[in-house]
C-alpha cells in the first residue's frame, strides 16, 4: 500500500512537471512550428500536391493509423534557403471506401494529409531531422486532445505518435514505404 502511494505521488509529480514544461517547450505545436507548417502547405499547393487541382495517383490499401486507402508522393521543396525532402501522404476513409469512389471524388473522402519534411541538420538530430505535420484538407492543422497543433517534432519523447511509430521503420530513416527518396542527392 505504501509503495503504491509513493508511485502515485511520483506519477502525479511527473504529470505536473510535464504539464508545466508543455506550456513553454513542447516539442511541437509552437508558434514557430505552426508558421513553418504554413510554409510547407504553401509549398505543397505550389506543387499541386494539395488543393483543387491536386495531381492524382492510384490510391492503395492503407493501414492504421493512416487511412483505409492512401496516396503517397515523394518530392522536395525549398523553404527559405533550405531544400529538403518532402513526403506527402493523403489519408482516405471511411474504412470501407473503394478506390473508384476516391478516384471519382477525392476531396469527399480525404480525411487528412500527413507530411514529413526534412529540415536542416540539427533541427532534430535524434530523429533524422524530420518535421512532422498532420493537416486537414482545408490546410488547417489537426490537433491533439490538448489542442496543440500537430506540427513539429510530433510527439518527441512520447511512446505514441509520429516519431515513436516511424522510428520502427527499417533503414533508420523513419520512412516506412521506401528508402529511396531520402537518400537522393541534395535532399538531405
Ligand atoms: C502507429 C504507427 C504510425 C503512426 C503513429 C504514424 N505513422 Fe505515418 N506511417 C506509418 C506506416 C506503417 C506507414 C506506411 C504506410 C503505407 O504503406 O503507405 C506510414 C507512412 C507515412 C508517410 C509516408 C512516408 C513513409 O514513412 O512511408 C508519411 C509522410 C507519414 N506516415 C506521416 C506521419 C505523420 C505526420 C504522423 C503523425 C501525425 C504519422 N505518420 C504517424 C505508421 C505510423
Give a structural overview.
This protein is an alpha+beta fold and 188 residues long. It has one domain (28-183). The chain has 6 helices and 6 strands. It has a 6-stranded antiparallel β-sheet. A hairpin with a 2-residue loop joins strand 2 and strand 3. It binds heme C. Heme C binds next to strand 2, strand 3, strand 4, strand 5 and helix 5.
List the helices and strands and how they pair.
Blueprint: H1 2-25, H2 31-46, E1 60-61, E2 69-79, E3 82-92, H3 99-104, H4 106-109, E4 110-118, E5 130-135, E6 151-152, H5 162-166, H6 180-183
Antiparallel strand pairs: 1-2, 2-3, 3-4, 4-5, 5-6
Bound molecules: heme C.
Give a short summary of the structure.
With 188 residues, the protein is an alpha+beta fold. The chain is built from 6 helices and 6 strands.
What radius of gyration results from the CA coordinates? 18 Å
The helical percent reads 25-40%
Give the structural class: alpha+beta
Total helical elements: 6
Give helix and strand order, one letter per element, not per position: HHEEEHHEEEHH
Query: What is bound: which ligands?
Result: heme C
Terminal Cα span? 53 Å
- Write down the overall geometry: globular
Arithmetic mean pLDDT:
86
Number of domains: 1
Oligomeric state of the chains in view: single chain
Main beta sheet, described? 6 strands, antiparallel
